[in-house]
Amino acid sequence: MSIFRRIFKVGEAQAHSTIDKIEDPVKMSEQAIRDLKNDLNNALESLAEVKALAIRTRRDAKNYQQQSTDYEKKAMLLLQRGQQGQVDAGEADRLATEALSRKEQADRQLAQTQSEVQKYDSMTANLEAKVNDLKSQISAWENEIKTLKARAKVSSATKKLNKQLAGIDSSSTVAMLERMKAKVEEEESLAESYGEIAAAPKSLDDEIDKAIGTGGGSDKLKELKARMGIAENKQLGE
Description:
Elements: H1 2-22, H2 25-84, H3 89-166, H4 170-199, H5 204-212, H6 216-227
Helix pairs in contact: 2-3
């Protein structure tokens, strides 16, 4: 039996562990609030029923009180008429006795209903206290769930960010940046080299023209000026 108990405990622990991984605290809290609201609805229904019973019982007590008063008045009236000779004295006594008997019955019922009214009043006060307590709990939980949702959102984002940061290899990042830097410097050097090649003379004639400071363009300019009769500006010292 001890072996079976140990096996059961292991299975129970694994089940709780699985449940802890599956359950969402926010959803659980929202379900708890829905349960409290159901309890509140049930309590309100019970409170309404007890109040209705108390109202009916008070009405019955009022009726019994009126009956007791009426029967007592009738008994007194019968005795008066018996003394005045309006009703046979014996009959008046008999009827007065019956009226008093009905009065006693009404008094007993009045006492019973008054006791029930006290009981219903006590139940009403108890239920009202529970209703107010449930309302307070629901309000507190609804405020708590707002905070819990915000905290869950922040913690989830923080966990994701920390997980990403934990997966970053700083040494590999530095090495990658160094390689990028070297590549950029290499490209810059290569671009400068191509620029120097582009600026170099393309042929021997270009080198000669560059050395003497003349070019094909200047000869054409002189020829055009000669046709237009424009004298060349002589350089100083010539």
